[in-house]
């Protein structure tokens, strides 16, 4: 008998296979979730391929996790068995540094505990993510999922959602603001939805005409074709904020031109080495920023915002055994806009 | 007879020589200043050498100009003959764009009119700067110099001063803030003085121990030796704001590490192409910014702040004929901290 309660990626050429996990005992403050759906983030693939040189195999990816509470520890008071719950990119942090005490666990000064492939004292010595039947974590890192949200489309909110919501809120996206979203993938399509729901004039900036049309359906008020220099330049100096979700290195120059005086471009897609022309920043007091997911409190706020505004991610559903096909399609940006694994397919 | 009312740089190998200027007629709203002192900015040398490929010869450099009002147009009401007055980097702007109407003429959307080497309808077809006996400009671009300030040390305030004052104010340098100043030259030494006067905990970040000692005399509370990695890293994550005045391309990485979550580094010294590791911005929601001089209203505010806080620039005085020696020393950073030309030496 093969006991298969998780899917583990071992190495690029033999990416995933059934994997037996001895789960941690449910502690007093722990919540166990029976996972229903798990989103597939580009980070999963980076870990599977060890692109960042930090993967420890076996890795069980997945940090866009939704399901139902199946057990709670004695001291848990926020969750009851049977309720919908979710886990994002973090399952713990120091709790005492100035970032944590301000609700910014994502910037924990000791480093937050990642949902997968992070050293832990739990069985296996590593955290194991959402490509799995079940997950146990401290209740303070568990999110409550509003009942009215479609659960499949909720999974990607836990990473793609909060990664775009947090910077839009931080830089005050709202009425009378002109906000550009660069790139229309898992992150970008959530950026369009959130920016629109926050009341900003939302502009999709893309190299693809068809993506421009798609973005309009998602809520973009306007589209700029980034490859049409003449047309693009007419929009120079008009943007308060640009959310750049492109996942690979690229030239930032045209986007800086689009910013107003005192405008900000925030990069969320690519922690790469960029060439930045400081002159473009100097002549306009512009800023380049970065932003990482969001804190737990803000993630809950985002889920509640989604509930009120009827927002979920656009997803394509997968069976567990289709994961390698999904990875191949992701590399070609061939997904609208996020793959989500039906964890009932893991047997 | 040689009429020599200005010093013009023609080309690098024959940099400066006497030059006759037919001055513009004093219009209704014009003020004429008899120049007493003119600071020497690195930009002057860039223009003289045509480093930026935009110099139109003959160029009369100089945009740190102080002197006495010697004539005023009929409609001028802010200035009287005999009063102390100053001109910085700008002598005009469109006056109607959103930047100008918000008092940010330095970001005029039509481009401000530079004090020198800028096309104009005045005689000569170019603006001519402060290496000169006299200058005429619209009163709205003339600053009033408080009587208690040492006039020689006031000249550099018009560029080096406002260039550092403006970003320190923009990013709220003040009590309970930890502010780093990188580089101790014409800009950096003003940054130290202003940050200290604004009440921020001011830290000089320098590669030179002796500059560290000098910075303490100028008002720095603390010094970090940037070359001592072990010691420097102890300060990581502590800075609210870093003002980077280094005038050449360099690695920004160590300075990003020094910033707190949500911290900002502002580059004012080098409009160069930098390599920016976006990961450093993402993991800490940090920002890289630029800033250019300051608006006219803010420049006057800065001069008044200097009057109240008894701040002027530290200067070395020059005769006009020593300008090439000064340029050579500037290239070697051999000046504490700004050369100022005594314009009485131009005959």
Explain what you see.
The structure is a homodimer of 347-residue chains. With 347 residues, chain A is an alpha/beta fold. In chain A, the strands form four sheets. In chain A, strands 3, 4, 5, 8, 9, 17 and 18 form a seven-stranded mixed β-sheet that branches. A six-stranded parallel β-sheet of chain A has the order 12-11-10-13-14-16. In chain A, strand 13, helix 8 and strand 14 (259-267) form a beta-alpha-beta unit. The model of chain A has no long low-confidence stretch (mean pLDDT 93). The radius of gyration of chain A is 20 Å and the shape is globular. The first copy, chain A, has eleven helices and 18 strands. Chain A starts with 5 loop residues before the first strand and ends in a 5-residue tail after the last strand. Chain A folds into two domains: 6-159 and 294-345, Medium-chain alcohol dehydrogenases, catalytic domain (Quinone Oxidoreductase, Chain A, domain 1), CATH 3.90.180.10; 163-290, Rossmann fold. In chain A, helix 4 crosses helix 5. At the A-B interface, strand 14, strand 15, helix 9 and strand 16 of A face strand 14, strand 15, helix 9 and strand 16 of B.
């Amino acid at each position: 008998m093969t006991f298969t309660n998780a899917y583990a990626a071992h190495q690029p050429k033999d990416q995933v296979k059934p994997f037996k996990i001895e789960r941690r005992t449910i502690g007093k403050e722990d919540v166990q979730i029976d996972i229903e759906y798990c989103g597939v983030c580009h980070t999963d693939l980076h870990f599977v391929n060890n692109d960042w040189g930090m993967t420890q195999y076996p890795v069980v990816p997945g940090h866009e996790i939704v399901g139902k509470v199946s057990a709670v520890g004695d001291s848990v008071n926020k969750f009851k068995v049977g309720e919908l719950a979710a886990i994002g990119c973090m399952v713990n942090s120091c709790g005492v540094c100035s970032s944590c005490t301000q609700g910014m666990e994502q910037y924990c000064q000791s480093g937050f505990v990642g949902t997968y492939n992070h050293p832990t004292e739990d069985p296996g010595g590593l955290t194991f993510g959402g490509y799995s039947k079940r997950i146990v974590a401290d209740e303070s890192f568990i999110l409550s999922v509003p009942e009215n949200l479609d659960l499949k489309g909720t999974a990607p909110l836990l990473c793609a959602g909060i990664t775009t919501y947090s910077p839009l809120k931080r830089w005050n996206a709202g009425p009378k603001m002109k906000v550009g979203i660069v790139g229309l993938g898992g992150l970008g399509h959530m950026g369009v939805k959130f920016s629109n729901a926050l009341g900003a004039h939302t502009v999709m900036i893309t190299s693809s005409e068809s993506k421009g049309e798609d973005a309009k359906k998602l809520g973009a008020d306007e589209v700029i074709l980034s490859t049409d220099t003449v047309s693009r330049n007419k929009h120079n100096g008009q943007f308060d904020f640009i959310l750049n979700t492109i996942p690979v290195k690229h030239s930032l120059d045209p986007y800086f031109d689009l910013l107003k005086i005192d405008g900000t471009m925030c990069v969320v897609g690519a922690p790469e080495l960029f060439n930045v022309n400081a002159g473009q920043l100097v002549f306009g007091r512009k800023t380049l920023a970065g932003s990482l997911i969001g804190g737990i409190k803000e993630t809950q706020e985002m889920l509640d915002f989604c509930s009120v505004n009827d927002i979920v991610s656009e997803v394509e559903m997968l069976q567990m055994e289709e994961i390698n096909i999904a990875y191949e399609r992701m590399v070609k940006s061939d997904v609208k806009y996020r793959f989500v694994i039906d964890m009932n397919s893991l047997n």
